[in-house]
Design brief:
alpha+beta, 6 strands, about 35% helix, about 25% strand
Length: about 180
Amino acid sequence: KYDRELLGELSRCAYESLKEFFQAALPDKEATPGAIIAIQTFGEMLNFHPHLHCLVTDGCFGKEGTFYQLPSMVDLGLLSALFRHKVLRMLLSKGKITGALVDNLLSWPHSGFHVHQGERIESDNKAGEERVAAYILRAPLSQEKMVYLEEKGQVIYSSGKKGGDKKNRDINSATVDD
């Protein structure tokens, strides 16, 4: 949380994971995927929640310019496990966590790491491209989730989620001074 340089390392772990995962699935073991990686540090309730949004090519480019498309069915659990391994190894090498903590984290039934694959966006789908670009660059605050109570001089921010975990219904508020 307090060492912002680790966010760049998180991105590097993501790209290295993508590259290794793609190369293992394709015939050209030196081909390179294209990726745009955006670092996000906020969660639904404006909490610290470092994560990455990635736009990734649907395959890799060989040295001669050949594009190798990734098979449509890939096991994203393997990519997630590879990413977790790289992140934990990086944090361990930088002295940010201990081997005992790594062992503890590896024993959890839910790793805390997740890779989501959206639908493929074809090159002629401009609306799809714009939707993904807007999502990857979204602001930490949403005006739709804010209400200003003028009589109290207070701004209320809520997640807008219903039901489920109590945290999803928490409200953050701040008083506005003139």
